[in-house]
Design goal:
The structure is a homodimer of 144-residue chains.
Chain A (H helix, E strand, L loop, with lengths): L8 E10 L2 E7 L6 E2 L2 E3 L6 H13 L2 E11 L10 E11 L8 E7 L13 H11 L1 H10 L1
Parallel strand pairs in A: 1-6
Antiparallel strand pairs in A: 1-2, 1-4, 2-3, 2-7, 5-6
Chain lengths: 144, 144
């Protein structure tokens, strides 16, 4: 663990539930399209602090029931650089409002997600989420 | 997601089961002590490829039933740098032999782990593993 060498960049993304809908941002910058809200991790902060900061900046939402979901690290998942993302799930608290890199925010029902519009590997991430968390989805449905 | 700035380094560590025992390495370099085997992720490789490569280099083991466990990212978890670790669990395949950064390899029964000798935040990681995976441990016990 002692060699210095070129490394991937480290990001966080979050699947945010607001009642029964999922939060997506329409990106202001390339690649254009819909994405899960996310951003890069700063030196000196935990990935949990990073995702709370980025979600506040990009969506105006605070996060409840924050949980790590999965790490996505394919070198080709992001066309800009090799970027490893720690993906979280959370409940959004507050009123969503677009900020930072987001031109606008869209809340989407789980059964109407426009997968073809999702950039990066976010279609795969959302499919993994919907496939692996039926219990979670049921609980959300019951609360919505 | 467009700003360039200083970021944490990205590592992988693995909780490897060999029959009912867990694999630790006695470190050749500072900090001295026992650690889970691990290493840094290279640009262009997935975290799964990184952990398979590092475990092969450091322990001589191939990995079966490889699963992501949790990401540990406290800025003070590693005295050398801010280093975020994606921790995996796996079954070790083959005969362990020390290589690379490891001076020697120790296989430890889950109920005799020398927590005071573990460096970094590895005592916490192993405690989290033992606390959160009773079903997994039972399966290992049955097979051991």
């Amino acid at each position: 663990m002692s060699r210095e060498h070129r490394q991937p960049r480290l990001a966080v993304d979050c699947i945010i539930r607001v009642r029964r809908r999922l939060v997506f941002v329409r990106r202001r910058n390339e690649p254009r399209g819909l994405a899960l809200p996310g951003g890069f991790v700063d030196h000196g902060e935990t990935v949990e602090d990073a995702v709370r900061r980025e979600m506040r900046e990009e969506t105006g939402l605070e996060l409840g029931d924050l949980r790590q979901f999965h790490v996505y690290s394919d070198p080709h998942r992001d066309p800009r650089c090799h970027c490893v993302s720690v993906v979280f799930t959370a409940d959004g608290i507050g009123d969503p409002r677009a900020g930072d890199d987001a031109a606008s925010i869209t809340l989407v029902e789980p059964d109407t997600i426009p997968f073809a519009e999702l950039v990066f590997d976010h279609a795969q991430i959302v499919r993994d989420y919907l496939a692996q968390m039926p219990a979670r989805r049921s609980a959300v449905d019951q609360a919505g």
